[in-house]
Amino acid sequence: MHQLGASELLQLMTVLGDAPERVSLVGAPFECLDWGRALSPALAQCLPQACESLAALLGSGGIDLERRTACTN
């Protein structure tokens, strides 16, 4: 739902009776807001740690992930 922000989406889910029990965000600080086709070097460096944090959050909620090798498309 690209037209809605996170806050609007959570409000809509609450109205529809489908709000999550908990909301967790995993992110990284941005280096710039320019459009591009690739990740900035700073974001690329933070991505592995963000993925590990996300996996830990999901694991704490009972969701087990399987580690896979990266796709190179």
UniProtKB/TrEMBL annotation:
InterPro entries according to UniProt: Pept_HybD-like_dom_sf
Database matches in Gene3D superfamilies: HybD-like
Protein name per Swiss-Prot or TrEMBL: Hydrogenase maturation protease
